[in-house]
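INTERNAL TRANSFER SHEET
From: sequence group
To: structure group
Subject: Beta sliding clamp

Please process the attached sequence and return the structure record in the designated field. Keep the field labels unchanged so the import script can parse them.
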Amino acid sequence: MQFSIKRSLFVKNLNDVQRAISSKTTIPILTGLKLVLTEAGLMLTGSDADISIEAFISAADEKNELEVGSTGSIVLPARFFGEIVKKLPEETLTLEVKDNFQTELRSGPAAFTINGLDANNYPNLPVIDTDKQVVLDAAVLKQLIAQTVIAVSNQESRPILTGIHLVLADAELLAVATDSHRLSQRKIKLDIDPAIHYDVIIPGKSLVELSRTLGDDVETVEMRIAENQVLFVAGTTSFYSRLLEGNYPETSRLIPTSSSTQVEFNAPELLAAIERASLLSHESHNNVVKLALDPTTSQVTIYGNSPDVGNVEESLNGQNLAGENLEISFNPDYMKDALRSFGQTEIRVAFTSALRPFTLVPSEDADHFVQLITPVRTF
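Return from structure group:
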């Protein structure tokens, strides 16, 4: 096996594939990067058994500057190989596999020899055959992931909550995540066959890594789902993830359909105020911020308190405040995550009572995105 290639482009593909490679794996060969060279081009593969990423570099594309000397395959230690490639001096890189899987890397005056492994011992990736592929806008998919993954649980004691629940029905994609303290739900209308139906749970960590591989040059992503795997194809990159097994909790009944107090805020302004209040609340053992709403005087006030440091009180610019008087306490970190997911927009916050979950929705498009937060009991 022997080839030369444009190093900067090779590094870009290498970075994508290395996201799937972990140094902590029970299968030693998975700490390596698999390279398979054919006349058509070079395939890079990385996997940790939960997620797998393939990147294909075509020999037909002149900008890749890929010249195939002899075909073959090899598995190289990913961490060392990656560090070496990034530090090579010239723009062109030449790789040649010699006897006993010894691999020589050359670039200008620099030459490295590293020990490889037989690629035949590398586990095969799953084959996902389906004619029900779904094409998604890459920017919308990245936004959906960012808006929902914040509510994914980090507790392995309930593994099903470490994933995002995706339901595709009637040409609408519903994504839901909850850690039982907060919930995020996003809906997207799709231009696809309404008969296509999916109901799967994808690990949140997998979707975060997928989002990182979707560069600004990627316009669409194709999603294919099999029995226990999902495949996302973006250009020349293929991203595989296992699916979580089990039934996701019924979350639709958690979202209140009525409210007793409503108010509208500019999301960045409210975020800034909560960040200020949480400067002190973080010093307290319970990390709680309190919001007081008085529709009779149109007053909205936020409080943060730490017995050791002091307290903060700030009047907020709430619009269209209506309903009953209310004082409610909540975790400011949950609130900050939720507000960041809205970006630069106006939001409507609806409260039911001091001890019931409250919702945040965009003022313009309330039906397609909702964040729910459970308050904190302070008495």
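Handover comment: The chain has a mean pLDDT of 93. The domain at 135-242 is CATH 3.10.150.10 (DNA Polymerase III; Chain A, domain 2).
Transfer complete.
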